[in-house]
Design goal:
Layout lengths: L1 H31 L28 E7 L9 E3 L3 E5 L6 E2 L10 E6 L2 E6 L7 E2 L2 E2 L4 E2 L5 E4 L2 E6 L10
Parallel strand pairs: 3-4
Antiparallel strand pairs: 1-2, 1-11, 3-5, 5-6, 6-9, 7-8, 7-10, 10-11
């Protein structure tokens, strides 16, 4: 009787181990995969670098103020559409090729006339004015958003970053 119970426990443990490994591999593949069904292929969320807007301008933008990455330099400006996703995935609105950024790290979206920042359950967190974001929060003009080694400034009223106005 004891041998049968021991055998059942062993096979139960083995089954649970296989289920755990299967779910872990599935999670890793989904995190690494940049599936076109989840991200728009062109002009995600209506976001374009300002210099590519061909004369159009918007009062709401993110401006890179600090970055140690080659592809994002201080002064790079991005116009914010209805939703903007920041992350490591190629389909993100702003791509941050930094090991501290998750595939889909955070998002900025508009709701009832206000812009909100939300962390998308990233591993290393999103910081708003050096405070970790643990729930969606309203953005104010001049707020600083830090993701990994990149810091953005949220500009809503159209003034330049660092101006005295």
């Amino acid at each position: 009787m004891f041998a049968v119970a021991l055998m059942i426990l062993r096979y139960s443990f083995l089954l649970m181990l296989f289920i755990f490994i299967f779910r872990l591999v599935k999670w890793m593949i989904s995190d690494l995969q940049d599936s076109p069904g989840h991200y728009p292929a062109e002009d995600p969320a209506g976001l374009l670098p300002e210099e590519n807007m061909s004369g159009q301008s918007s009062d709401v933008k993110l401006i890179v103020i600090e970055s140690s990455l080659e592809e994002l330099e201080p002064g790079d400006t991005f116009i914010i559409g209805p939703e903007l996703v920041i992350g490591r995935a190629g389909g993100s609105s702003i791509v941050i090729n930094d090991s501290f950024a998750s595939t889909r790290h955070s998002r900025v979206y508009i709701k009832q006339g206000q812009y909100w920042l939300e962390d998308l359950k990233s591993t290393n967190g999103t910081f708003l004015n050096e405070v970790i974001v643990d729930r969606p929060i309203v953005l104010a003009d001049g707020d600083r958003i830090r993701i990994g080694k990149v810091t953005f400034q949220f500009v809503r009223w159209g003034h330049e970053v660092g101006s005295s106005n």
